[in-house]
């Protein structure tokens, strides 16, 4: 029987690392077959002297669509002005579905994307699941990453709230999707069902961005629920990567009341909080819409 669930929200605070992140783990020999990813690019054709492109990776249940407004703002306000590229990771948004979904596969997809679009170096930001993909990519291909921003996630032990996330897959799988009605009505019908299990209206609205129309007013979830469910343990843990290092500038952004900041400091740096961040920026709610925060809070 499905139970009612909720996720906490916390403000966000950025801080800079002053030392290198080194992850010491065992390596893996899995064969990674990259997929062609969907993306949205924001640029002005007449621009000259641009910086390296700024690539954004969304989180679990998210898509490039969630970053549309921020992508436009980043493009307009960065100096030097950069092309901004928001990507749909595999099994999300408009990118292909596949039975495999590990951070190794996500990083391989991103590597293929850079090759396909002749991108020599990028500034890279990832949120939540996308943040772990960004960390692994920077560790594996440091020569391709000018600088790294990781939002709402860490490679450290994850939050106990993470155990709530698989329940969302069960809830979505058990929703009775309507047909022969307009999209607005379909979302209202599905929202009413979701409300039986999820009290947070903004979280329901975020999940509903994944409800899409197929043919003749039939509807489906555009995320690959079976694959994400079967691979969830791979999503929940940062992968084994050996003694890889990333020496570039790195910024972590996390919830002000989340203890993942302290754990990052003590686990990877051995420094006290006041030596890490230089300013506080209070931001209500989540960065990417109202994405569930169980994989970031207290991690």
From TrEMBL:
It catalyses: 1-octadecanoyl-2-(5Z,8Z,11Z,14Z-eicosatetraenoyl)-sn-glycerol + H2O = 2-(5Z,8Z,11Z,14Z-eicosatetraenoyl)-glycerol + octadecanoate + H(+); a 1,2-diacyl-sn-glycerol + H2O = a 2-acylglycerol + a fatty acid + H(+); a 1,3-diacyl-sn-glycerol + H2O = a 1-acyl-sn-glycerol + a fatty acid + H(+); 1-octadecanoyl-2-(4Z,7Z,10Z,13Z,16Z,19Z-docosahexaenoyl)-sn-glycerol + H2O = 2-(4Z,7Z,10Z,13Z,16Z,19Z-docosahexaenoyl)-glycerol + octadecanoate + H(+). GO terms for cellular component: mitochondrion. Residues 52-158 form the AB hydrolase-1 domain. Keywords: Hydrolase. One of its GO terms (molecular function) is carboxylic ester hydrolase activity. InterPro entries: AB_hydrolase_1 (IPR000073), AB_hydrolase_fold (IPR029058). The keyword Hydrolase applies. The keyword Hydrolase applies. Its EC number is 3.1.1.116. It comes from the Eukaryota. PANTHER family: PROTEIN ABHD11. Belongs to the AB hydrolase superfamily. This is sn-1-specific diacylglycerol lipase ABHD11. It comes from Rhynchophorus ferrugineus (Red palm weevil).
């Amino acid at each position: 029987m499905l139970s009612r669930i909720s996720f906490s929200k916390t403000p966000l605070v950025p801080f800079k690392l002053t030392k290198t992140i080194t992850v010491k783990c065992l390596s893996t020999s899995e064969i990674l077959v990259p997929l062609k990813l969907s993306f949205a690019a924001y640029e002005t054709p007449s621009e000259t002297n641009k910086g390296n492109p700024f690539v954004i990776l969304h989180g679990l249940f998210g898509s490039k669509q969630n970053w549309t407004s921020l992508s436009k703002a980043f493009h307009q306000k960065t100096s030097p002005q950069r092309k901004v590229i928001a990507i749909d990771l595999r099994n999300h948004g408009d990118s292909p579905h596949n039975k495999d979904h590990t951070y190794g596969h996500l990083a391989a997809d991103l590597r293929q994307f850079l090759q396909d679009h002749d991108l020599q170096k990028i500034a890279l930001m990832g949120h939540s699941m996308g943040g772990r993909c960004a960390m692994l990519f920077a560790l594996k291909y440091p020569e391709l990453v000018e600088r790294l921003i990781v939002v709402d996630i860490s490679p450290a032990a994850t939050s106990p709230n993470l155990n709530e996330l698989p329940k969302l897959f069960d809830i979505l799988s058990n929703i009775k999707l309507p047909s022969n009605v307009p999209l607005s009505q379909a979302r209202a019908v599905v929202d009413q069902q979701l409300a039986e299990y999820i009290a947070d209206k903004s979280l329901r609205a975020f999940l509903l961005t994944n409800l899409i129309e197929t043919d003749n007013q039939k509807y489906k979830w555009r995320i690959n629920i079976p694959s994400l469910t079967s691979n969830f343990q791979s999503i929940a843990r940062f992968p084994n990567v050996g003694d890889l290092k990333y020496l570039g500038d790195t910024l972590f952004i996390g919830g002000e009341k989340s203890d993942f900041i302290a754990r990052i400091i003590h686990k990877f740096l051995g420094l006290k909080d006041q030596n890490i961040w230089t300013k506080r920026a209070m931001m209500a709610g989540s960065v990417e819409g109202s994405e569930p925060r169980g994989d970031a809070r207290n991690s």
